[in-house]
């Protein structure tokens, strides 16, 4: 309604660079109180080697205004240039960009995901988002399409002193059959599914420019094409969304549209390596519900069809949102979350979802993701399962995702860090100000006790997190 549109436009004002001080003006703001971090090893997210004995200055608006080599400057020089500086000696620490989970469903996560066994409410959402930030996540791309619930949290997340990650949310797009999905019905909040700016059914008779405009009005960052669109409608939605300034994200198989047809249409980010298997099918299934039943045994990961698909993605410079964790690591918490409604009345079904996947499919996913990486395709880190302290998770699952990249998919630790910072920011379209540690960018930082370039599990060894220059949590005593 009009209230949601008004709030959406208010949220979009946070994204309007004209309302921020530009980085160029921030670089001149040396008279205000600044923060100096020094004596740390810098891993900037661009993929280069760690840089020891580094220092950086953050101004009071949370922008990085200088990055320095401590071997070339003295404390006196810093004090003369920044007389009001507040200094923190990070000797022995490692600083990486804030982590970005490029595939989340926060609105359903706070209800135990998928089957909604408890009402959505502010307490659960506050716990979830605070847990994400304390685990190093400073931004996230939400792919669930539940804008009425997400919007207040997304608006709050853009305030530096609110302990939530920034949330970039989407308009969920599909055909009429997809709008019957119970998850869609839940996210409709009493409206007719498929008729709003956050849930849109597309057919040959849809006024697509008007449909996209309604999504823009409520502040979405991109459209997520989920299922039930043919290649002509996929192309039409993609063109119009880009024309109106939105990002275009999809499942890697839309049904009945093949992955290669999505790439040809100009899709910017394709989610789920697992669904690439359908590229090898002679006849593409029409029903998106078969997406968990890929025939991995009879469609090898290194078939010519898959090889050609990867080459197309590379040529188009599209991003693969691989989501390997949710398909290959069905730990007890995830299984509990996925099958919660079955526990009292029926046995857990077998091989019926992302989180209960046949072993041959798991290895297929690892192999194709590895081949995509070797080919030079940009791969962003996203979980499809954020994780929750209320479910016993000690850290957000994004750490498991990048650990799998290293352990199973041929990434070096530094490449995995790039996937969860720079490439993830590119997937959302926020890389101008986020995703790497560079002069003129926002100071979203994770300070680590141990070197993640040696052991990727050290991204869990968090000392503190900075979101736009604000420390979370506040350390006891001196940093």
UniProtKB/TrEMBL annotation:
A Pfam family of this chain: Amidohydro_1
GO molecular function, one term: hydrolase activity, acting on carbon-nitrogen (but not peptide) bonds
InterPro entries in UniProt: Amidohydro-rel, Metal-dep_hydrolase_composite, Metal_Hydrolase, Metallo-dep_Hydrolase
Domain of life: Eukaryota
Annotated ranges, domain Amidohydrolase-related: 94-469
PANTHER family recorded: ALPHA-D-RIBOSE 1-METHYLPHOSPHONATE 5-TRIPHOSPHATE DIPHOSPHATASE
Protein name as it appears in the record: Amidohydrolase-related domain-containing protein
Organism name: Didymodactylos carnosus
Upper classification of the organism: Eukaryota, Metazoa, Spiralia, Gnathifera, Rotifera
């Amino acid at each position: 309604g009009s209230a949601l549109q008004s709030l959406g436009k208010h949220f979009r004002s946070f994204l309007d660079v004209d309302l921020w001080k530009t980085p160029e003006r921030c670089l001149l703001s040396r008279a205000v109180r600044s923060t100096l971090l020094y004596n740390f090893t810098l891993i900037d997210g661009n993929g280069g080697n760690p840089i020891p004995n580094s220092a950086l200055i953050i101004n009071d608006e949370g922008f990085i205004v200088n990055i320095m080599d401590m071997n070339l400057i003295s404390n006196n020089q810093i004090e003369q240039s920044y007389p009001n500086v507040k200094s923190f000696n990070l000797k022995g620490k490692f600083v990486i960009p804030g982590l970005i989970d490029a595939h989340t469903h926060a609105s359903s996560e706070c209800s135990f995901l998928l089957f909604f066994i408890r009402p959505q409410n502010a307490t659960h959402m506050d716990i979830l988002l605070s847990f994400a930030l304390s685990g190093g996540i400073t931004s996230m791309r939400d792919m669930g399409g539940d804008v009425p619930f997400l919007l207040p949290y997304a608006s709050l997340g853009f305030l530096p002193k609110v302990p939530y990650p920034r949330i970039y949310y989407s308009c969920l797009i599909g055909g009429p059959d997809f709008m019957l999905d119970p998850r869609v019905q839940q996210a409709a909040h009493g409206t007719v599914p498929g008729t709003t700016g956050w849930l849109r059914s597309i057919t040959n008779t849809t006024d697509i420019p008007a449909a996209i405009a309604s999504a823009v009005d409520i502040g979405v960052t991109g459209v997520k094409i989920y299922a039930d669109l043919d290649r002509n409608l996929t192309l039409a939605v993609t063109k119009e969304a880009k024309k109106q300034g939105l990002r275009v994200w999809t499942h890697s198989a839309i049904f009945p549209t093949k992955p290669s047809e999505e790439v040809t249409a100009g899709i910017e980010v394709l989610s789920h390596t697992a669904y690439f298997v359908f590229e090898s099918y002679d006849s593409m299934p029409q029903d998106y519900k078969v997406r968990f039943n890929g025939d991995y045994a009879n469609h090898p990961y290194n078939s010519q069809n898959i090889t050609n698909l990867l080459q197309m993605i590379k040529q188009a410079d599209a991003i693969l949102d691989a989501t390997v964790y949710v398909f290959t690591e069905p730990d007890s918490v995830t299984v509990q979350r996925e099958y919660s409604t079955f526990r009292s009345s029926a046995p857990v079904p077998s091989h019926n979802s992302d989180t209960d996947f046949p072993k041959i499919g798991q290895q297929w996913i690892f192999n194709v993701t590895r081949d995509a990486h070797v080919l030079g395709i940009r791969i962003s880190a996203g979980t499809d399962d954020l994780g929750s302290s209320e479910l016993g998770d000690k850290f957000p699952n994004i750490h498991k995702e990048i650990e799998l990249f290293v352990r199973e998919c041929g990434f070096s630790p530094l490449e995995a860090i790039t996937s969860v910072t720079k490439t993830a920011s590119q997937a959302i379209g926020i890389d101008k100000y986020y995703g790497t540690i560079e002069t003129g960018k926002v100071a979203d930082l994770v300070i680590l006790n141990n070197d993640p370039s040696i052991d990727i599990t050290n991204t869990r060894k968090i000392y503190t997190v900075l979101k736009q220059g604000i420390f979370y949590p506040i350390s006891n005593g001196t940093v």
